Structures are given as C-alpha cells and as structure tokens.
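User: Sequence in, structure out. Go.
Assistant: Echoing your sequence, followed by the structure tokens.
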Amino acid sequence: MMNKPLGLILAGGLARRMGGGDKGLIEVGGETILDRVLSRMRPQCSRMIINANGDPSRFGFTGLPVVADDIPDFAGPLAGILAGLDWAAAHEPQTDYVASAPGDCPFLPRDFVKRLELARAEKKKPLACAKSGDWRHPVVGLWPVALRNDLRRALMEEQLHKIEIWTARHGVAVAEWTDKPVDPFFNANTPEDVAQANEIAAQHPDA
C-alpha cells in the first residue's frame, strides 16, 4: 500500500452555470461544499491543498495553501492537476501520488482514495479514476508525481486539455461505485443542483 497521497481540491473552475463565484463556498446540508469535501479528504491524505485561480484570500479560512494554475487561459482541470503535482514535487518530495477531487462534490466517499489505490494496484496501472453508474469521473483520481513533466508537455506543446486522452496514454484503472441511492460524485453545477443536493443531504444525512 502506498503512503498517503497529497490531497488536491480542484476549485479553479469559472462556475459559469452558477453565475460565477466559487461553487465550493455554497452551503449544502448546513455547511459549505468545500468544508464537506475537506472533512472527507483530510483523513485519507497526508495534507491538503486547494487549486484555485484569482484572489487566494477567499479560501484563507481553510488555512490551506492555495495553488494557482501556471498554464494560461484557464486550461481546464489538467492544469489544476499539474499545479498540484508541481506543488507536491516542490514541497512534499517524499510524496509519490496526488489524490484529486472537485470542490463541488458534496457527497464524496470517505474511502475513495483507498479504493482508487486498490484499483490501481490490482490493474497495475499508474493512474486511477472513479466511476459511478454509467459515468466516469476523470477528475476524481490518483496522479503520480513522476508524470508531471509529461503532463506539462501535453498541455504546453500539444494544447491537450481532455483528461481521458492523456490518462489513456499511460494507463488508468477505474474504481466503481453505485450511484444509488445517492451518486457519491454528484456535482453541484447549477442552482437546481444545489437545491437537489440539499434535498439529498436532508434525506440521507450520512451520504
């Protein structure tokens, strides 16, 4: 079993469907989605960082390092993954893996890191991602720090932004969850999603 990975919360999106702002700061079940994500990831990870662009002080209440993309023009989640891998290499050189999850995922499983690692080890792949029901969730994943230079080349030289194209090059194991009664990787992307998430939290307080 690997050492605990660095935990990376991806909060760098533009939240266009929410009218802008930070989706992680919206409340679900009486606490912010970001707090819900943190409480689930912290026990699974060696330490936590947040990937976000713009003014980092809005996340100051967490006490966590806030790491911005260094790939220009909001290059998508792969740029956030790269920022986390680079931060790990610079600040946590003993860490081999980064575990990532989006900052708008209020029902994130409390064992997802362990299950991703088990899938990765069983399939003998360098990468792992989550799947629930019929949907893969490529940003819920395990990423080897050793691949950061290859990822930078893909982003900078190829302008490659689709996660699954890059992960397929190296090999990715898929860990599967049921999406009933609650999809553990439900994303709060719209105001309607937030209302639904609050209903789910009320009906399934342990989700």
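User: And one key feature?
Assistant: The chain has one domain: 6-203.
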